[in-house]
Amino acid sequence: MDVDVRVENDPAGAVAEELARAAREGGHVAVSGGAGPRPAYERAAARAPDWSAVTLWWADERCVPPGDSRSNYRLVRETLLDGLSRPPAVHRVHGEQPPEEAAAAYDEEIRGVRLDLALLGIGPDGHTASLFPGSPALAETERAAVAAEPGLEPLVPRVTLTVPTLTAARLVLYLVVGEEKAEAAARAFGGEPDPATPASLVRSAEGRTVAVLDAAAASRLAAAAS
What we know:
alpha/beta
């Protein structure tokens, strides 16, 4: 369950290459929202415009309509899907539905699927997907997706994949940029697994876990490891 930590001058470019490789190889890919992956999606679409061999999932979603500015689906559509010549099969979370209803439907859709790649980020509080510190979702072992209360802005209910679903991925790929993520990255990748830092719990059980960071996000890792 070790993590391959890579400090890159161009982390978005490195992640875009992994996404392009996944597009060429095909399989089940889960993506995330947030500002961090935006340039990676744009560059992945340019490098590999044919995603027809991919089935696309979301690691988490805010419970808002798909056209809402807070929607992870909207971000991925605008930065990745709209730039493709051949799109993937898309399984979005229906965030316009009530959270429990949306989570139950998504759980049923993805149940039994093993992800080939799960692209994740980390929040300043150490959360990943919508698995927040202290969340009951961290203890979920039966369901693939559950409703989750927000741990930070925007304060809207969410749907998230669970720890077992994410750790079953063949490649768990983190993209972490910015000094505001440095402390959380140090806890996630330089410390012991701890529910107070949910990102420290999500590692590929039988495949690879890779964390791509810029220098600012990695600035406290050496101290955490010492």
